[in-house]
């Protein structure tokens, strides 16, 4: 593992990248103990605080874990999909906000990905997935539920649909679509939408999943996408009108 001290990138970032590359390539394997801070400092010709900062970066990404005691140190972690979800959501949120992705683009991507899960979810969904979706539908119908709580319930409902596909790779990839794109879309449309309309479409999706009816799930998702797009158009039109 090497770094280039002449590069403008932060030295700790270079060290973190070098160790990350070693983990990804398999040169450092799961549960393997990394060299000590002093050894890494000697290897990279940097100070121990610089190494310590690099290790903090890797720990924040769940790539390594630290243990105390005589047999302690930094070890290569076994990264799980669940551990990576938050990073995927954060990255997707930043990409959407920093690159000014249009509502239509985000909506198209989110529903295209979610509809890809529908056939698998119709076959593989468990009673727990259905129970979660039914619970969220019940929650959404409660009087006095705040817009923020309704949005959170909306996300939880669709996350259960995605997880119902029983594919952790899809769940990971869609974490950004459902938990980053959807809240942003909710913020744009919440003032114009009919909760009753959304609850009705959510109920259609849950009913279709319970009947293992993939085409019906897809039909309901298509209708939900069309409704979401129309809401955005209504909001945009309202903003264009003079006060």
Architecture overview:
- This protein is mainly α.
- The chain has two domains: 66 residues, Arc Repressor Mutant, subunit A (Orthogonal Bundle); 160 residues, Four Helix Bundle (Hemerythrin (Met), subunit A).
- It is 71% helix and 3% strand.
- It contains ten helices and two strands, in the order H-H-H-E-E-H-H-H-H-H-H-H.
- A two-stranded antiparallel ribbon has the order 1-2.
- A hairpin with a 5-residue loop joins strand 1 and strand 2.
- Helix 5 crosses helix 7, helix 5 runs antiparallel to helix 10 and helix 7 runs antiparallel to helix 8.
- It starts with 10 loop residues before the first helix and ends with a helix.
- 29% of the residues are buried.
- The model has no long low-confidence stretch (mean pLDDT 86).
Q: Secondary-structure map with pairings?
A:
Elements: H1 11-25, H2 37-44, H3 48-60, E1 64-67, E2 73-76, H4 81-98, H5 103-124, H6 127-140, H7 147-163, H8 168-189, H9 195-210, H10 214-240
Antiparallel strand pairs: 1-2
Helix pairs in contact: 1-3, 2-3, 4-8, 5-7, 5-8, 5-10, 6-7, 6-9, 7-8, 9-10
Could you provide a short overview of the structure?
With 243 residues, this protein is mainly α. 71% of the residues lie in helices and 3% in strands. The model has no long low-confidence stretch (mean pLDDT 86).
